[in-house]
Amino acid sequence: MVGLALAVALAAAPLAGCGEEPVAPLPVRQPAPSSPAGPATSPPNPTPAPSPPPSVAATTAATTAAAPTRPIAPPPTRPGRPSTAPTTGRPTGTPPAACLGAVRYDLVLAETELALFRSLCLATGGVLRIQGIGPGEVTVDREDLVVSNYEAGVVDIRFVRPGTVEVRIPQNGVTYPVVVVVR
């Protein structure tokens, strides 16, 4: 019950500043008659809008003139907090944004145009999973950097050391090389 009374009091607070002064209606312009096919007619005599009492007009003009305009500034930063603004440089030793990390990348041969798939960047521990290929068809040029496994038409190539590995995938009589950079 107390919360309801407080909500009513807060809702009425902006109205309390109006006082007992009368409120004048806004001036309204009569719409011009539009008759595309008829003859031009003179506009009817609009009734002039009542002018507000001098105290309300002076208050409105003073309020309008006193409202300063200021540019929107960025929010202030607090000392001791790190900035979230983007940096132009990249700290040394971190992989580029295009490198995926230690994830499994699924390459479905039935849905992928291998002529367009040229390179990939993974972190150490990442896996390239090639789906829809026969046993012994996929080869790599650096056996010391990978561990591969074949099962049921799927080849998993896990990259265990950093370096560059060329994975060769045959499809329709053409062998496509995919360069995998391992960070």
Sum this structure up briefly:
The chain is an alpha/beta fold and 183 residues long. The chain is 15% helix and 25% strand. The protein has a domain at 104-164.
Strand content: 25-35%
> What is the CA-based Rg, rounded?
37 Å
The separation of the N and C termini measures: 65 Å
- Find the structural class using helix and strand composition: alpha/beta
Count up the helices. Answer: 2
Strand order of the largest sheet: 1-3-6-5
Largest sheet: 4 strands, mixed
Fraction in helix: 10-25%
* Low confidence ranges: 59-68, 77-96
Shape: elongated
Order of helices and strands: HHEEEEEEEE
| Count of β-strands | 8
Mean pLDDT value: 72
Structure in words:
With 183 residues, the chain is an alpha/beta fold. It is elongated. The model is unreliable at 59-68 and 77-96 (pLDDT under 50). 8% of the residues are buried. It is built from 2 helices and 8 strands, in the order H-H-E-E-E-E-E-E-E-E. The longest helix has 15 residues, at 2-16. The chain has a domain at 104-164. Helix content is 15%, strand content 25%. The chain has a 4-stranded mixed sheet, with no helix packed on it. It has a 4-stranded mixed sheet with strand order 2-8-7-4, with no helix packed on it.
